[in-house]
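Reminder to self: tokens first, then the designed residues, so the page reads top to bottom the way the pipeline ran.
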């Protein structure tokens, strides 16, 4: 794809195309790969620029993805749901981080970009520390001290997510609280060169997981085993966190349950997976759909329809178009068995992807037709479609991750999905390989029909059609 112009987005697209970091892991001195110093600087600069334009005097973040975006620190995904690390970004200043005590010291020793701004501080651990322990008040005082030092205590304080006792304690200190979540969401919409390289690298790892799954799938394998295999491949390749491997097969495909089970794969089963994992914080959301041994005509038709809706959406991904244009090519909820768009939410769907699975922009008939967002270079999002089969129980599900370039787009999910793939197709008859397109119950042959008719005539019973 030819890229014209001299803007920064064009430059990052050009650099990314010659950057081998999406395929190679280790940093070296003889190739230009992911530059983590640049990643830290550019992420923080985006947040600072938006904060400078806002009404807020400072931004307080408890969401671990936002904390990582601002401070480039990470202590493991066990802390992801505890809302127990927090960072303050004041206007015209550098971020301050409060973390678990040992982690705070580790950051002091190993994160020179933080310096003495890495400090111990623990809030309520999602309520595990009861109110009389005073942790909420302790956090509020820490924040007020820093705001007063900078003359920002009378300015609104933006917060992304927070435990109610901490919110109340901050308000008791006289601090005005406003929504800071949108500012961070906006900061993360456009990805830097290194963020795109990391997202590409993360997708590459799922390519490999699907290759192993395709080779391994056969009757008798359970969804649990498929999840275990995919997880091992990802961790062996350096995944930091396998957030989910949704493995859904057979009659579980319709309706879509979004979770794996102990169901065992059988010949003729449809099966689709959504693999969500993180490499250096950057996620994947990556569906692929297969059948085991062979596929029915109904399943083939469903896959074709699902793929067409996805391809129509992808064809519209270019700067200047809108999320409404993409959503408009997808079917209405009523067309595939749902009463309204909320009931069908996330089946025909698009969402930004980065440090979180779901980021801006969200693309859905439920919201995008009336609240359209412009598509811009540097966005990275996933598009996913679903279509139920006419047999009433099977269904197809496919997803691609797309980088918006200066002149169009690039799909970074590489495992083949243009046609329905059959896994475990190793059946042979006396006439050769068994067709991979067949029904679970074959229609009776002409000879069988003749036998039934002859028997009915001889025995004096009526034969049915």
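Designed residues (465 positions):
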């Amino acid at each position: 794809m030819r890229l014209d112009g001299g803007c920064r987005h064009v430059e990052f697209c050009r650099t990314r195309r010659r950057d081998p970091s999406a395929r190679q892991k280790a940093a070296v001195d003889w190739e230009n790969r992911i530059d983590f110093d640049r990643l830290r600087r550019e992420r923080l600069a985006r947040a600072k620029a938006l904060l400078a334009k806002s009404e807020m005097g400072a931004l307080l973040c408890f969401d671990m993805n936002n904390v990582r975006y601002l401070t480039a620190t990470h202590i493991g995904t066990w802390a992801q749901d505890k809302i127990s690390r927090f960072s303050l970004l004041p206007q015209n200043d550098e971020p301050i981080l409060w973390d678990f005590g040992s982690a705070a010291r580790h950051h002091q020793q190993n994160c020179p970009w933080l310096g003495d701004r890495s400090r111990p501080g623990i809030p309520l651990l999602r309520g595990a520390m009861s109110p009389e322990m005073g942790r909420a008040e302790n956090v509020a005082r820490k924040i007020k001290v820093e705001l007063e030092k900078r003359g920002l205590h009378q300015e609104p304080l933006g917060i992304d997510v927070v435990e109610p006792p901490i919110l109340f304690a901050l308000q008791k200190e006289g601090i005005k609280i406003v929504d800071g979540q949108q500012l961070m969401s906006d900061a993360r919409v456009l990805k830097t060169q290194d963020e795109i390289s990391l997202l590409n690298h993360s997708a590459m790892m799922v390519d490999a997981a699907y290759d192993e799954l395709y080779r391994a799938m056969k009757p008798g394998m359970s969804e649990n085993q498929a999840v275990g295999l995919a997880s091992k491949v990802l961790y062996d390749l350096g995944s930091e966190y396998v957030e989910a491997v949704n493995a859904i097969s057979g009659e579980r495909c319709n309706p879509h349950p979004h979770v794996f089970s102990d169901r065992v794969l059988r010949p003729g089963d449809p099966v689709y997976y959504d693999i969500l994992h993180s490499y250096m914080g950057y996620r994947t959301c990556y569906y692929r759909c297969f059948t085991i041994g062979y596929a029915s005509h109904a399943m083939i038709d469903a896959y074709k329809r699902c793929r067409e809706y996805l391809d129509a959406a992808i064809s519209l991904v270019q700067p200047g178009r809108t999320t409404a244009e993409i959503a408009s090519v997808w079917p209405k909820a009523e067309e595939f068995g749902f009463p309204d768009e909320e009931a069908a939410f996330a089946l025909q769907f698009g969402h930004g992807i980065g440090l979180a699975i779901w980021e801006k922009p969200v693309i859905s008939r439920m919201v995008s037709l009336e609240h359209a967002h412009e598509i811009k270079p540097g966005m990275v999002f996933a598009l996913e479609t679903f279509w139920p089969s006419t047999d009433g129980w099977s269904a197809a599900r496919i997803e691609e991750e797309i980088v918006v370039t200066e002149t169009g787009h690039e799909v970074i999910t590489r495992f083949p999905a243009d046609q329905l793939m059959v896994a475990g197709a190793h059946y042979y008859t006396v006439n050769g390989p068994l067709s991979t397109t067949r029904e679970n119950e074959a229609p009776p042959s002409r000879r069988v029909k003749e036998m039934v008719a002859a028997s009915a005539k001889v025995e004096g019973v009526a034969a049915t059609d």
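The chain has twelve helices and 18 strands.
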